[in-house]
Amino acid sequence: MRVRRRSVAAGTLGLVLLASGCGGGGGGADQVEVFSWWTGGGEEAGLEALIERFEEDNPGVEFVNAAVAGGSGTNAQAVLEGRLQSQDPPDSFQGHAGAELQDYIEAGYLQPLDDFYDEQGLREALPDQLIEQISYEGEVYSVPVNIHRSNVLWFNPSLLEEAGVEGPPETLDELVEALEAVAEETDAIPMAVGAQWTVSHLLESVLLGSLGPDAYNGLWEPGADWGTPEVAEALETFEVILDHTQEESAAEDWQEASRRVADGEAAFNIMGDWAAGYFDEVGALPGEDYDWVASPGTDGTYMWLSDSFTLPVGAPNEEAALSWLELVAGREGQDVFNPLKGSIPAREDADPAHYADSPYLESALAEWQAGPELAGSFWHGVAVGNRWKNDVDTAVGLYLGDGDLEAFNDALHEAARSE
Amino acid sequence: MSVSEKRAGGAVGSGPGRVPAQMSPWRRALVRSRSWLPGLLLVSPSILLIGVFVYGMIGWNTRLALSDRHRPVQEGEFVGLTNFVSLWQEARWPAAVGNAVVFTVVFVGGALLLGWFLGLLLDKGIRGEAVFRTLFLAPMAVSFIATGVVWRWLMNPAPAERATGLNALFVHLNLDFLVNDWWTAPDLGMAAMALPAIWQLAGYVMALFLAGFRGVPEELREAARVDGCSEWGVYRHVVMPQLRPVLLSSVIILGHMSLKVFDLIIAIAGQQIVADVPAVYMWAMVFEVRDPAKGATIASYLLIAVALFVVPYLVWSVRKERSEGR
């Protein structure tokens, strides 16, 4: 039965290869094939810089860039799944660190990297809480190369002034007051959101701000109790915030929602820190057109997500793959990659000088190195696997349609229970 | 093949007198095979390919749908129709089916009406018919993705003060009451989602109907007119009844497209519950959640739904061919 499935998968893969016109998967001894979805913008530039460095350090080893285009990796993951099932893995592939890799680990596709962590001194270089949150049953399976922050409140300083709000809100109650003030005093949208996923993104920041990091992290333990009054209260706040969003949000993506803040059309937007790179792209000025703080109630907590690289079982060129992992795990590699990608290094010992060009990255790195509390983003695959994440997203979507908060809470509870 | 060989062998045994003595049984079989072998060889690649890649895959999918293989790593046991039943107990699936039904009704109905109407106008002899025909057919050359991207902007649901797209046009024309939520309306948003699809396929339906109209002999119309039938009556009682085959094939072509619509939805709404349809749900289950059994179950439902459209048509056309003695 197993053999049959394998042959079917191999057949499918054969077709995919035929269709995409790339013959021959395997590879010679002197190459390393790295699979990612970094095909555009700063991500691609960062990867190119890493490749250049890798080829300098490893003369004679050819780097094969097997990047598959498509935002947040959904296309790439579909291609990867076929390769893994037919036991033709790349030498290393990109994945969001944390629970999103769980499926691969359970399927036995990944090698544990504990020895590698010990050799490279990564246990000292990375925050303890980070290693704890990416471990699966006590073992680590991936090497985080960067850190993004999910809980950032972007705001328009002049709109706040116009609405008579003194300084950015620090708690959720203050946020609600500020939203009401903006709605009354100005013509602007109080809180800009985009399509459904950005509402799920907003939800995690509200939960963290209302419950605090410990209770928030506890929510994502399988079988967690979501039927508590605390969660209900957080969801009520969530509902009030959603009342102040724009009607056409479903037709927009995160870029439009963030742009509204920089253009003075909206007062607030809660989005990950990739928005900083987007603001640079559209020429908005930090401190003038936009400014940022940790989302209300989450100061001192870093809700993180991370791109990481893995070592698949049966990697054709394991030695070269380990050299690649060494590069992306190292201080130098991370400092080459991250300023271009627009993220901060996962290591705590990075050199701040590399990040001085960007006011956002500079402040984010300082905060990261000060040792904040860590909370794993659920939407970006740190805290939960794809199934649970999809259940929550479905519940959010249904709630956006019917506005039934109680049913929403029940659905979230049910999703946690069924894990 | 073995059957025909046997038959050939049997013939040798039963009537040796009719066979030329110098011809060996092998040679006889070879001569006979000339009548059917080339034909079989010609179609066998497609029989094989269709057998494996259509019916084989359907069988594989069905087996998966009847198992509890909810993670790729599991082996999966036979669980009967459990998956088929449990889909209806969740909130997302019935909503997705409801969306698909609204979309199908509006899309098929709208494209048929508009296509029929355009065909009627062209049939009445309009100046520059060829130009109009091309114009109406042109949207078919566009992919659903491109259509979706444009209509996503046209159907922007922003309220009057920030209106863009069609809403801005309404505001500009002082028709503010027409400003609406388009596809983002929770209940009947899918009706708006059908507009781009109607725009795209009405021209195709028009071409089908136009061919149908032209296929009705002029003598029949004249006979009706002589009998004092009004022009509308000619269409109502003489032309339209003869267009039933055209109508039926249009419904089937549009219906099966509509049930499995995916690209248009992804281009306009992405993955959002407000515009969820079975095909999008299936994609999320297979490629994001990685639940093979659930994905296969949804695929089976899609197959059944399309079969409901196609099978009656096949039965009908086979019967018709028989009754016409073909």
TrEMBL record, chain B:
Sorted UniProt keywords: Cell membrane, Membrane, Transmembrane, Transmembrane helix, Transport
Keyword tRNA-binding part of the UniProt annotation: no
PROSITE patterns: ABC_TM1 (PS50928)
ABC transmembrane type-1 domain boundaries: 97-315
Bilayer disposition of the protein: Multi-pass membrane protein
CDD domains: TM_PBP2
Matching InterPro entries: MetI-like, MetI-like_sf, UgpAE/MalFG_permease
Spans traversing the lipid bilayer: 36-58, 100-122, 134-154, 188-211, 264-286, 298-316
Record-stated family: Belongs to the binding-protein-dependent transport system permease family.
Protein name: Sugar ABC transporter permease
Source species: Nocardiopsis alba
